[in-house]
Amino acid sequence: MIDFGYTLSKSGTLKIENLDDSRFKALHKLEPDAYKCINCGSCTASCSAGVFTELSLRKILLSLQRGEEKDYINQLQSCMLCGKCMLVCPRGINTRHLILSISKIYNTVDR
Amino acid sequence: MAKENVVVIGGGPCGIEVARNLRDLGYTPILLEQQSELGGHLRLWDRLFPEGVEARKVLKELTGDLKGVKWFTDVNIESIQKSRKGYTVNVDTGMSFQTKALVVTTGFKLFPAENKQEYGYNIYERVITNADLEQYFHTRKDPRIQNPKTIGFVHCVGSRDEKACNRQCSKVCCATAVKQASEIKELFPDAIVYCFYMDLRLFGRSYEDMYLTAQRKYGVRFIRGRVSEVSEDIDGKLFVKAEDTLLGKPMKMKLDLLVLMTGILPGDSTKQLSEMLKIQTGEDGFFTPRDTILEPCMAKDGGLFMAGTCTGPKTIPETLSEARAAAIQVHKYLSK
């Protein structure tokens, strides 16, 4: 390539129509509540690990829905499965089970 | 010819307005209220959104003109019999009323804030409800409110919450929170006021102006995140945890006062009457009308009418409009 002395920045726009959502579809099949989140943030606010690490279940779930999981999925490693998020969720999502299913489908755990 | 009786159960703003309109249409309404005064929740409120009209002024207008309405307070319904001729309503004072058309306006109750223990109502000193604050605006007396410097409002307490067994939006609390946040800023201009919300649902005419005023004039800080829990430190200050979801960061803050915006549930007598009269209710416990769009004031049974917040959360003007609609429906039914 000819060096013109400048580079083009990569677009940061979400390309939602090109999204490969096959894994999220698989997750949705396993967890019908995966689309029920209203992003209220109760889970993150109550999270025991979230204060000291980047862990935010709300962000992870939203990133999965948008196909942007690569920056967020590793946060799940910090989860201790204490279940506090399950107690506060106003939509009644079984977050503990959801986290386990995400780990399974997105292969975040060594098995 | 003697005027025909029509029994109206529930003497809040809705029942009063149904009765007044039936009176104007040539009937003798019999208005039954279980409390010792007419007026329902309107008696407990100080000002009404969006313009801040005094609740007592509205109530005075409504109750000031009850000539021709037979009203009874401190009465409880014992039983209701249905026959071909209509309904016989028996009350605990020994009286019994015959009516061809029965109007139910049994209203709502506020979600009991102590049921959400994580918010600490009746546990921590400085946690109050929207109803407590209205009372304070009127009396200016509440030992829990001592010149607060930081104040938080929690939206959706007992609404849109499956854990509180109420999935529905209560519709009026967002507007009330914005109103109360502005009013408390008026009383304590140096205080910092936060509103914690999931979605702001302010839908009516000029409600957006009220929201803008809260932001521009009063500097109310709106934080998009639901409060997950509250605790108290040794000095009685409150620790509140939420996520600022727009920034994507968990936050923790110290507050001097926390106001819980309790939501709307069907009133206890709504439940009692649904059993007595076999009125269909939804999963949320409110009465289901015959047709939610075309006949919102009519029950499945002919002769049975309903209006106001016994069929779901409503503002005062919506309630009053529905009361007038119900009165016309009763008149049409009885004129057949």
- Give the CA-CA distance, first to last residue of chain B: 18 Å
The CATH homologous superfamily name of the largest domain in chain B equals: FAD/NAD(P)-binding domain
| Mean of pLDDT of chain A | 90
CATH architecture of the largest domain in chain B: 3-Layer(bba) Sandwich
What fraction, in percent, of the residue positions of chain B are helical?
25-40%
Proportion of β residues of chain B? Answer: 25-35%
Order of helices and strands of chain B: EHEEEHEEEEEEEHEHEHEEEEEEHEH
Q: Could you list the spans of chain A in which at least 5 consecutive residues all have pLDDT below 50?
A: none
Largest pleated sheet of chain A: none
Shape of chain B: elongated
Q: Provide the domain count of chain A.
A: 1
Global morphology of chain A: elongated
**Helix-strand makeup class of chain A:** mainly alpha
Q: How many whole angstroms does the radius of gyration of chain B measure? A: 22 Å
Low-confidence stretches of chain B: none
CATH topology of the largest domain in chain B: the name is: FAD/NAD(P)-binding domain
